[in-house]
Amino acid sequence: MSDHDAIRVRLNKVLGELAPDGGTTADDDGDVTLTWEGVLLYLRLIEDEDPPLVRVSCPILLGVARTPALLEAINGVNAGIRFGRMYWLDDQVVVSTEMVAATLDREELESACRAVAEVVRHLEPTGLFADVTSR
């Protein structure tokens, strides 16, 4: 079994432990979706990194232009995030974090899902981005 195959097996095992009821689905891009505490998360195995990574992410804004005001708001959020980050990419604002895939376990993936979901849930009611995306 190749290293990449072993990593895929490990990821599937950890996902099975985290969502034993089969609450995950895979999309055409290879992302696995998982709803964590009401937040839709995307999990992706990034095999072309050294070491390979697992990314947990959630796009929170779609179709937004990159502006200085938006980047300033993102930077303000990033200053308060302890695990993960927020960024603008391809007209989306995304919250994400990565973990080393080869050593991933349930607790680490659970912590990553919780960290991303908490940032998203915290931001939703604040309307922080309403001003910077409507200009």
How would you describe the overall organization of this protein?
The protein is an alpha+beta fold and 135 residues long. 36% of the residues lie in helices and 30% in strands. The chain has 4 helices and 6 strands, in the order H-E-E-E-E-H-E-E-H-H. A 6-stranded antiparallel beta sheet has the order 1-2-3-4-6-5. Strand 3 and strand 4 (53-62) form a beta hairpin. It is elongated, with a radius of gyration of 16 Å. It starts with a helix and ends with a helix. The mean pLDDT is 88.
Number of helices: 4
Using the CA coordinates, give the radius of gyration.
Answer: 16 Å
Q: Total strand count, please? A: 6
- Please mark out the parts with pLDDT under 50 across 5 or more consecutive residues, or reply none: none
Estimate what percentage of residues fall within beta strands.
Answer: 25-35%
Order of helices and strands: HEEEEHEEHH
Strand pairing plus helix content: what structural class?
alpha+beta
Distance between the termini: 53 Å
Widest beta sheet: strand line-up: 1-2-3-4-6-5
Q: How is the biggest beta sheet arranged? A: 6 strands, antiparallel
Instruction: Give the overall pLDDT as a whole number.
Output: 88
